[in-house]
Amino acid sequence: VLVIKPYKPSQTIGGEVISHQEYDELSGSLLVLKSLVERQGIPVFNNIPVAVKCTAKILRDNINMQDLVSADLKQPVSNGHVQVAEKLFKLREAFNNRDTTGSGHISLADVCMAYRLMTNRKLSVSELKGLVSNTSDCKEQPVQVNFEEFCAIIAELKSGDAHNNNNNNGSSEKWALCSRPPRSLSVDNSSLRDVFLAGDCTDYAWTHHLAIPSLKRHGLSYHLLEEVSGSPPDLAVIDNSFVLLFVITGQSRSLSVMTMAGHYIGLGCNVVLCIQHIVEDLVLNGEKMSKQAVSDYNRGRIYLKDLAHRDNIPVFHTVDEAVTCAIEKCQSR
């Protein structure tokens, strides 16, 4: 459950008034966070009492956040049509990966494997047969299913009805994301990239002088994060990248980049990090950062590094080392 309260111009934080430049960066990072969370189909609240009420309902009724109705949320999820399209694409991708012959049908064992890859939850064929027999009017259980039937089965499984009495997938799964293997490439070959490069757009010298030339020398493709003023970056391209390289330099606040890095580490993606601490008396666009501000932003870097280490994500201090690691990951797949 996420509540985002917007910053205000000239707001005081820790006894210091933030500048207009810092306000823009703080607000931009919240915009990125909101976009990331809503792409998972999860609504973002701006009202704490409403969020607490919905949290109580989730716990009381044993439901998922996505199961809340509009009357509970008071506000819809932004770009809902985009999320539906992405979910359908992922379902089609999972189905096609198991339908190796192109027959338009997959076996129940393939359904179990696809479900496990999408959710990291185990499902046996016998459990699946039980679900099919309970939801189908047919006397004979199907040996194979088509795409429409596959979507219906996955929807039923994700509702939680099929796992309420499963000891291996108990209520503990609702508390946090499981640790998952790195996500594989999408099947949309026209937009595949080997490496996604992300850093603060005000400090992109490392991309043109080091990262991009190195990737080109090794014959690897890439996509460079582009930010548009007043709107979040195009996050869909990340789904079509094998390695996500996030560079947090010591010459920028890098709030949005750190937010994205933490999010995709949590999703179990193939992430490589370069984290540098901000030095004291740093001047950004003519503004000298206070000691308190430097301490706050460096603390965020420490939190991100700790999160990465717990998930065995490689973290480097120099861009050169991080780029080399990303290249090696691409070459070893």
Quick rundown:
The protein is α/β, with parallel strands linked by helices. The chain is 45% helix and 12% strand. One of its GO terms (cellular component) is plasma membrane.
Secondary-structure map:
Elements: E1 2-3, E2 12-13, E3 16-17, H1 20-38, E4 44-45, H2 48-61, H3 70-73, H4 80-98, E5 106-107, H5 108-119, H6 125-135, E6 144-145, H7 147-158, E7 193-199, H8 205-217, E8 222-224, E9 241-248, H9 255-266, E10 271-275, E11 283-284, E12 287-288, H10 291-310, E13 315-316, H11 319-332
Parallel strand pairs: 1-4, 7-8, 7-9, 9-10, 10-13
Antiparallel strand pairs: 2-3, 5-6, 11-12
Give the tags.
two-stranded parallel sheet, 45% helix, Rossmann fold, five-stranded parallel sheet, 3 domains, alpha/beta, 333 residues
CATH class of the largest domain: Alpha Beta
**In angstroms, what separates the terminal alpha carbons?**
36 Å
* Rounded average pLDDT: 80
Q: What is the quaternary state of this protein?
A: single chain
Specify the number of helices.
11
Q: Could you tell me the radius of gyration in angstroms?
A: 22 Å
The poorly predicted ranges are 161-188
* Strands side by side in the biggest sheet: 8-7-9-10-13
When the domains are counted, the total is 3
- Helix/strand-derived category reads alpha/beta
Shape: flat
The helix/strand order is EEEHEHHHEHHEHEHEEHEEEHEH
**Major sheet:** 5 strands, parallel
**CATH architecture type of the largest domain:** 3-Layer(aba) Sandwich
